[in-house]
């Protein structure tokens, strides 16, 4: 067995170990349930060697879909696991009319990756009749989820959806949220008492801070007060953001859903209309010419969040930028590489708040490398796409299947492991998929 095959075999073992009879946990203890966007990437990994698990994975996630269409960011398939905070009893979604009785879920969502993942699975297995059956079953559920984004999270009717919790963005403690979250005033004594569990399973300096968690809990309570839906949240939440990553992924997934819908014989004109509008607004509202990147937009201050960070590059995967803007994004990424960083740091390494170890403040994330590799390929930037892929493969070979990795090349030299959780499911999945792809 050569090195390449050995790595793929190791990755498969991780997925098997994290498999819980119907879904895959990201990592035991640290994340012992099913996570929304993790499950999409994990399904991609399974599709290379046990496609039935890929389909079960997606079906399990959608068993937590709310009546209003939302796919929650966590599905708590077990009510007995106690190693994670906030657990189902803290979210209290059983008080929400729209939430399923069982399984219990959280009350917010995450990047809607499932349509493009489903399309990939279809393209790979189109001769398998079970795949078409599965697609027929999943298609209306995913369509409802996309409709939920537009109906519940786009009150300005711009084609750009908003989030009201950093956990929805997937990039919990990115420095780009510092100002918006730092300005939130609340009385700590009014927060419900809670006990973090994450720092019992991994080092505190790799995780968000205590103040970060207080704000997360505060914003969760805002959602809870309004049953995690309704127009009130848009008006009262101090954190209301149009996020680059969420919107780019939604646009990319819209494209896939339109193709899948047409394949099944449906008219997809509504979604085509939404998608066109989303692309135009993304270009007009989120591009920052001075920085040469897309930025998130803070709807509370009515200003762009002027930071260079990883979400901007996912616009490439969605085919949003003109060639000129794509070139600027590519050049920026390349400049980070030239400054002595592996690709792709999750935040601008030239910024004072960059921290190459702490969660989303700088480290390299496998699923982000996957998205950016695909985006660069879409625009024909093959050399940089290969660098993004090879950097991740090298890091995993050197340090193991961790949740995220040191970005600084010099610091990497003294390390023999990555950051956060080990034996991580989406790291295993993205490695399988990247190593099995030609480019
Ligand atoms: C966590 O618990 O760290 C997650 O990012 C929230 O989903």
N/C terminus separation: 22 Å
Average pLDDT, all residues: 97
Strand order of the largest sheet: 1-2-3
Strand content: under 5%
Largest sheet: 3 strands, antiparallel
**What compounds sit in this structure?**
(2R)-2,3-dihydroxypropanoic acid
Tally of alpha and pi helices: 19
Spans of at least 5 consecutive residues with low confidence: none
Q: Which structural category do the helix and sheet elements fall into?
A: mainly alpha
Nutshell version of this structure?
This protein has helices at residues 3-18, 36-46, 51-62, 88-91, 114-124, 129-153, 166-169, 178-182, 198-201, 210-225, 231-236, 244-263, 269-286, 314-317, 323-338, 366-378, 382-399, 409-413, 425-436, and strands at residues 34-35, 74-76, 104-105, 241-242, 287-288, 293-294, 297-298, 303-304.
């Amino acid at each position: 067995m050569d090195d390449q095959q050995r790595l793929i075999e190791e990755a498969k073992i991780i997925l098997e170990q994290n498999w819980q009879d119907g879904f895959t946990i990201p990592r035991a203890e640290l994340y012992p349930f099913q996570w929304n966007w993790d499950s999409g990437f994990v399904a991609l990994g399974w599709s290379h060697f046990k496609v039935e698990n890929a389909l079960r994975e997606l079906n399990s996630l959608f068993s937590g879909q709310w009546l209003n269409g939302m796919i929650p960011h966590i599905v708590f398939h077990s009510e007995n696991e106690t190693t994670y905070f906030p657990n189902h009893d803290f979210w209290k979604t059983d008080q929400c009319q729209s939430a399923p009785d069982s399984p219990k879920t959280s009350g917010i969502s995450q990047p809607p990756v499932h349509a493009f993942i489903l399309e990939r699975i279809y393209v790979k297995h189109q001769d398998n009749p079970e795949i078409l059956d599965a697609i027929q079953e999943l298609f209306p559920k995913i369509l409802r989820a996309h409709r939920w984004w537009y109906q519940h999270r786009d009150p300005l009717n711009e084609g750009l959806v908003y989030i009201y919790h950093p956990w929805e963005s997937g990039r919990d403690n990115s420095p780009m949220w510092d100002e918006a979250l730092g300005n939130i005033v609340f009385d700590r004594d009014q927060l419900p008492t809670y006990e973090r569990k994450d720092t019992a399973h991994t080092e505190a300096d790799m995780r968000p801070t205590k103040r970060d968690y207080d704000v997360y809990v505060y914003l969760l309570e805002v959602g809870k007060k309004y049953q995690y839906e309704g127009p009130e949240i848009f008006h009262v939440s101090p954190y209301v953001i149009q996020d680059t990553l969420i919107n780019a992924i939604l646009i990319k997934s819209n494209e896939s859903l339109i193709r899948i819908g047409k394949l099944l014989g449906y008219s997809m004109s509504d979604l085509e209309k939404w998608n066109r509008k989303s692309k135009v607004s993304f270009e007009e509202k989120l591009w920052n010419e001075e920085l040469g990147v897309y930025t998130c937009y803070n709807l509370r201050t009515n200003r762009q969040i002027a930071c260079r960070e990883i979400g901007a590059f996912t616009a490439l995967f969605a085919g949003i930028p003109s060639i000129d803007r794509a070139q600027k994004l590519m050049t920026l990424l390349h400049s980070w590489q030239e400054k002595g960083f592996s690709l792709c740091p999750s935040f601008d390494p030239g910024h004072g708040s960059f921290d190459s170890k702490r969660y989303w403040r700088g480290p390299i994330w496998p699923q982000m490398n996957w998205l950016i590799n695909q985006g660069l390929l879409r625009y024909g930037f093959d050399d940089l796409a290969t660098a993004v892929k090879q950097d991740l493969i090298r890091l995993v070979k050197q340090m193991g299947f961790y949740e995220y990795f040191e970005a600084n090349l010099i610091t990497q030299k003294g390390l023999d492991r990555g950051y956060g959780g080990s034996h991580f499911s989406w790291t295993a999945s993205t490695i399988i998929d990247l190593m099995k792809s030609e480019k």
